[in-house]
Amino acid sequence: MFEALQFEFMQNALMAGLLASLICGIMGTLVIVNRLVFLSGGVAHAAYGGIGLAFFFGWPYLFGTIGFSLIMALFMATVTLKAKHRSDTIIGVLWAVGMALGIILIDLTPGYHVDLMSYLFGSILTVPDSDIWLMLGVAVTIICVVTYFYNDYLALSYDEEFAQIRGIHVKGLYFVLIALLAVAVVMIIRVVGLILVIALLTIPPYIVEKYSKSLFKMMIFSCLLSAAFTMTGLWISFTLNLTSGATIILVAGAGFLLSLALERVMPKISKRANRMVEE
Amino acid sequence: MNQSIIKIRNLNFSYNRQPVLQDVDLEVATGDFMAMIGPNGGGKTTLLKLMLGLLSADRGQILIFGKSPKAVSHRIGYVPQDVHINKDFPVSVLDVVMMGKLRPGRGWTRHSKNDRASACHVLEKVEMADYDDRRIGELSIGQIQRVFVARALVTEPDLLFLDEPTASIDTKGQREFYTLLKELNEIITIIVVSHDLMVVSGYVKSVACVNQRLHHHGHAELTGEMIELMYQCTAEEVCPVELIAHGVPHRVLHPHEEE
Fold this sequence. Notes:
The structure holds two protein chains of two kinds.
Chain A: H1 8-33, H2 37-57, H3 61-82, H4 87-108, H5 116-121, H6 129-148, H7 150-158, H8 160-165, H9 170-192, H10 194-209, H11 215-240, H12 244-278
Chain B: E1 4-15, E2 18-29, E3 33-37, H1 44-51, E4 59-64, H2 69-72, E5 76-79, H3 93-98, H4 113-125, H5 141-153, E6 159-163, H6 171-184, E7 189-193, H7 197-201, E8 206-211, E9 213-217, H8 222-235, H9 241-247
Parallel strand pairs in B: 3-7, 3-8, 5-6, 6-7
Antiparallel strand pairs in B: 1-2, 1-4, 8-9
Helix pairs in contact in B: 4-5
């Protein structure tokens, strides 16, 4: 691992992985407690439509993708607020249509074709410096917004109605949350791919939720666990020469299974320990 | 003392074109302790949510402290019926209570020592002080209900709405709970939704029967005349008979008479 760090691409991969962990740890926590996993998946997949648009019309990549994803995300958010019971269907439709649109537009674009695989799994080993800076910018923005509105987000995530009665701008903050989520997802897709985004958004927060006493601790633990998964995955992929994105996801998946197993075993062990103490 | 704190005129509300509330008129005096009774789906919770500004009426007017509910909802303490929402949520009892100290646009600042102190104080009042550090999901439903009462009280409300606050509390706990409410009623106007009229009757000052329409028995002496009042209510086809049966002592002998 240490000799690997001499390579610039490996340093960048490490930085990108850590920044992605930071962003996913914070946003993932809010995604889990607000039950936005499906919406995040929808945004991430629909973003492909934005990539297609950007290529077809020759727009700058980020402009097309972030713009399109933001519109899709805010539309999904509106539907979620207006028609709660139908929102999953509509998110599913946008999810599929966005992707299909992206693929057709890229088919129609003459010349260079983006590889769907690199969109799905990203290419963490070829992250340029400029992307690292962009991710850093997104991370700082997210930290500022979430810190500033921490108490409000805590209240509206736990009990939306109560937050509204207290005079919190629940809808406004909800849209801000979804917009941040869309930007974060698009940024990270470019670096580590959309499958890894979903994995990092959901797996670490889900594992640590049971062991966290506050939303803040859940965010911190998620970031740390994400970072551990990313580092381990990168190291394994480097040593065994495997696809890095997929390796990171498998490491996270293994962590997930391990936590489920621990949850089963732990009560039994503590019970046995208690019995031994009593004897 | 007898000024109206709530004025509702000709209120109509429907959900998916099904009328839930029709032509509701209600005046609640400052200092009142009103019980709201009625069958499930009769519109009690809906009426509370309309008064909190969480729902908007189709027709009619609601004035609370002389203003629209949305403008003054922060002066109302609310204890919702469904307290086991988000049971796995990573939040401590104390932090839940401190949500009552939120103000719009407050941002940045952490909760002050004063906020913490008043949160601890109300937790003592509802006898949950020993649990302040626990995760909310570790508590029983009855305990969570107490925490939610504390969360409503810490807002220092002028008006307190409770939606079936004793549904999961045993009889002794209920009595203690209503004694606490009666004590609070010395400074706060209270509206409580309840199924168990018999428990409520010893404590409240007035009763509103809600079943699409509302009938308010203002300031009636409830204890002796209750059954009579209820029959009167039935005659007007406002109150549900089966629900009144809950409160009538002879139901103990014929628990299945409704079937």
